[in-house]
Amino acid sequence: MQIAEAPRSSTAATPDRVNHWIGGRRVAGTSGRRGPVYNPATGAIAREVDFASIEEVDAAVAAAKAAFPAWRATSISRRAEILFRIRNLVEQRREEIAALLTAEHGKVTSDALGEVARGLENIEFACGVPHLLKGAYTEQASTGVDVYQIRQPLGVVAGITPFNFPAMVPMWMFANAIACGNTFVLKPSEKDPSAALLLAAILAQAGVPDGVFNVVQGDKVAVDRLLEHPDVTALSFVGSTPIARHIYETGTRHGKRVQALGGAKNHMIVLPDADLDMTADAAISAGYGSAGERCMAIATVVAVGSVADPLVAAIRARLPQVKVGPGTDPASEMGPLVTRQHRDKVASYLDSAAAQGGTVVADGREHPLYRDSEGFFLGVSLIDDVRPDMDCYRDEIFGPVLTVVRVETYEEALQLVNDNPYGNGTAIFTRDGGAARRYQFDVNVGMVGINVPIPVPVAYYSFGGWKGSLFGDLHMYGPEGIQFYTRAKLVTSRWPDPGTSKIDLGFPRTR
């Protein structure tokens, strides 16, 4: 089988354009459609990204399909060897990857390096694929009959990844996918697409065969084609809940296996006995890190009883210490938001909160960089006296706006969390081990932190929420990632002695 020839363009691939990666090489787009890629710290357009046509998506899928038979037949030990090389190259080039994240997403360097490190953990997990793909074997299940189960790859699989983690989330997906013997097509966010091309080059350098890993840049045209393409067997997605629901419903309607991670509204329950200083530090770290553009960010602090006033005061006192500035400045702790449009939408919740009865304790629009810079900056913001019917509570703001809801009892706090349509992450801060254990038992949320504000699982567990935060049966990366990217085959085997065969029309029994 020949790898489909990628579309050619009269315009060569150039550094100021972010292209596709198809069949082992960088390919300039031919659709004539492109989008701007901004430097969020300056507001300037840094480069343009090609938007794939249907034909270009088809070429990437065809390249992946053509590469699948040989890659699937590649020994597990050889695949593991290549994964180790990928791991080492990502480690060696982590600062280069992080610099791209800062340039296009805006996050500060320390945060970008942290993203690379957490992605690297998933590659390290996938390096253990010889152990992870071990099947099960039962000898003498019936007289002379053995039964064993094996796990086999699906074929061509695709990943659609968000703007907030342009390196880590692709690593969540492709590491397990290719380790299991699948071939992969990545559609990264058009807002910060360059990291995907660098990852493609790293994989090629590590020895990943042409066509095993492909990148198609683009917008809804590329997404819709991946969803309906008959040769794409499975699709992973991370993004907002409305799009996750669309991805899940459309993909499954076309017969694909789908895992679609949606939005979040993560609550941090604070009981009256909590360590006040630790809790205030944690709320600020988890609420404003990466400018709040994390699906595991703390969006709402639920202050129980008498802790509310001192906790809000402690958070407020710390806000002036948060250094907002360009991600390239070593002194910066929080950078800009990804686009001007998103920054302005986030800022609008400060107005609606005040109009709906909330108390704006800190308004990020008062920060000098919001007023005087062309970058997409918004200072840290805090809203107190929030009610569940307010826009700033109901919506996923996805920015540096922390809200505080006051309740009188643990039971009220629990009901607030369980009634919320999202179920991604939550945390409880308390010195009471019994209360913490009760909360982890009672709460209907997929990931729970106890005095840990952002409970993102380590790579050898799996990431995923409940309710409107996940569409699909399996969580992402870790053991459930291996399960998602493989399917079970059950073999029942008999090797009879000559002359012992006979006709038996009865239903097979195990005795």
What's the structural blueprint in terms of helices and strands?
Elements: E1 17-18, E2 20-22, E3 25-27, E4 34-39, E5 44-50, H1 54-73, H2 76-92, H3 94-104, H4 109-126, H5 129-132, E6 136-142, E7 145-153, E8 156-160, H6 168-179, E9 183-187, H7 194-206, E10 213-215, H8 220-228, E11 232-238, H9 241-253, E12 257-261, E13 266-270, H10 276-288, E14 298-304, H11 308-318, H12 340-355, E15 359-362, H13 368-372, E16 381-384, H14 391-394, E17 401-407, H15 410-419, E18 422-423, E19 425-429, H16 433-442, E20 447-450, E21 466-467, E22 470-471, H17 478-484, E23 486-494
Parallel strand pairs: 1-5, 8-9, 8-11, 9-10, 11-12, 13-14, 13-19, 14-17, 16-17, 19-20
Antiparallel strand pairs: 2-3, 4-5, 6-7, 7-23, 12-22, 15-16, 18-21
Helix pairs in contact: 1-8, 2-4, 2-7, 3-4, 3-7, 4-6, 10-11
Structure in words:
The chain is 38% helix and 22% strand. The chain is an alpha/beta fold and 511 residues long. The strands form 6 sheets. A 7-stranded mixed beta sheet has the order 15-16-17-14-13-19-20, sandwiched between helices. Strand 8 (156-160), helix 6 (168-179) and strand 9 (183-187) form a beta-alpha-beta unit. The two termini are 47 Å apart. Mean pLDDT is 95; it is low at 1-13.
Indicate the radius of gyration in whole angstroms: 25 Å
With helices defined by DSSP (H or I, 4 residues minimum), what is the helix count?
Answer: 17
Structure summary, number of beta strands: 23
Estimate the strand proportion.
15-25%
CATH fold-level assignment of the largest domain: Aldehyde Dehydrogenase, Chain A, domain 1
Structural class: alpha/beta
Distance from N terminus to C terminus (CA atoms, Å) equals: 47 Å
- Give the overall shape: globular
Q: Identify the quaternary structure here.
A: single chain
